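Extended Data, panel c. Modelled sequence:
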Amino acid sequence: MEDEALRTLFAAGSALATTPDHAVEIVLQGIARDVQENHTRGCPFLNAAAEFPDPEHPVRQAVRIHRQWFAATLAELVEATGSPNPIATARALVLLRDSALVGAYVDDTTDVVESFLWTARRILRADDSVDAPQGDGML
């Protein structure tokens, strides 16, 4: 269900956006709304991964597939904005969403959402061509 909701969010963002930057902002706002309204117990994917430590378990494989899709789709959106390193930017946004979902579980969700949006916008404006990680992780 969570996977489907995120896919719907990305599709809606693409359909409603007037520019690539607007598409990214729609997705960020959707993630923020999702964190605030639907995740009082953290991220269901991270929670599932924690319950199944074997990386070859089907649950972990499903989590990995979802996270790879999420990162790749973010990278496509970010690339359309002209970012010099959309993969590094997407990875940073994935990590930021992870932390927002966990933070919303233990802290005030309004503060977490405001911080998520503030940080995400700064990540997008950063010159990520300098010292950008080149790992072969999620993408």
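The helical segments are 2-16, 20-38, 44-51, 58-80, 86-106, 109-125. This feature is highlighted in the accompanying rendering.
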